[in-house]
Specification:
Aminopeptidase; globular; about 25% strand; alpha/beta; nine-stranded mixed β-sheet
Length: about 300
């Protein structure tokens, strides 16, 4: 991910109250997901065995199979006939093949309206004999997808949810571009994209959410609630006086270009960004776990809204 916008306002009405059985993500009485498994997944995906997960390599294929196995074990349905959505593209004069991995959880009240929760599973591979494991970028986001799948077992979403593990983000957002240009579901039925890319560490204890300036409904979802007492959850990096505008930083840009509202969750670049030192040992487990809980809480607030049809 490199930290590099049609204004669309979603009308909304508050729907039913939050799931009665759901505890707030920051409530210590109940865990929404197995925190130790979240850490085990990010450790596995960022291990040398996956060779940096570069698109089109054995390591990338191994990562794809890992994601498929986790979706299947978590009783996540494939979005299409299969979990994989293969595609091909040219990048810098070279032909590449990639595969998105797409899972589906059917909504209990609005099965024909979709929230796409996404992360990219590819990274930089091996360069000059060094493995770029990409623990934060973006094994952190992919592992969070598995925690969402676990959460949905006991907390069925009202809207249908697509869990999208995109390929070839590092090669120009190719997987998400293909997804929106060859969508298995009508784009007008996608109400929002929640994209996670680099969410497992921050020396400043800051998690940013990008995209609220482009949508009044999402702005209210973020501004009207307190999401954490443990980390600083901040808006920004999208419009105004920010040095770095992250509107086109990751796969959410593909949705934004199709006028689909988005929220992007990420942290500032750190010293290990796109370096072979982006390893599991350098993530911050407490920050990471809390970040995933915050993102789940944002999803909860969005899922109880009633959205009009988009055209």
């Amino acid at each position: 991910m490199k930290k590099l916008v049609c204004f669309f306002v979603l009308g909304y009405f508050l729907g039913t109250a939050c799931h009665a059985q759901m505890m707030h993500p920051n409530n210590s009485k109940t865990s929404l997901f197995d925190e130790s498994m979240l850490l085990q997944h990010i450790k596995a995906l960022s291990s040398d065995a996956f060779e940096g997960r570069k698109t089109g390599t054995k390591g990338g294929e191994k990562a794809k199979k890992y994601i498929v196995n986790q979706f299947s074990a978590g009783h996540v349905l494939p979005l299409g006939k299969r979990y994989g959505q293969p595609f091909s593209f040219f990048h810098e004069g070279k032909h590449h093949n990639g595969v998105n991995v797409l899972g589906l959880i059917k909504g209990s009240l609005y099965p024909d309206k979709y929230i796409v929760i996404s992360a990219h599973y590819d990274h930089e591979g091996i360069k000059n004999g060094q493995i770029y494991n990409g623990a934060d970028d973006d094994a952190s986001g992919v592992s969070a997808l598995f925690s969402f799948a676990e959460y949905f077992k006991n907390n069925p979403p009202k809207h249908s949810v697509v869990l999208a593990a995109f390929d070839a983000e590092e090669l120009g957002l190719q997987g998400s571009k293909y997804f929106v240009n060859h969508s298995i579901i009508p784009l007008k039925q996608i109400i929002v994209n929640l994209n996670m890319d680099m969410i497992s560490r921050s020396d400043k204890n800051e998690l940013f959410v990008v995209g609220t300036v482009y949508n009044e409904t999402l702005k209210k979802v973020i501004s009207n609630h307190k999401y954490s007492n443990k980390i600083n959850f901040l808006t920004g990096h999208d419009e105004g006086n920010w040095k770095d505008n992250w509107t086109h930083a990751s796969d959410h840009a593909s949705f934004h270009k199709k006028k689909i509202p988005f929220l992007y969750f990420g942290v500032d670049d750190h010293e290990d960004y796109h370096e072979p030192t982006d390893d599991y040992e350098n993530i911050q487990p407490e920050f990471y776990i809390e970040a995933v809980k915050v993102i789940m809480s944002v999803f909860e607030k969005i899922d109880v809204l009633t959205f009009p049809a988009r055209f």
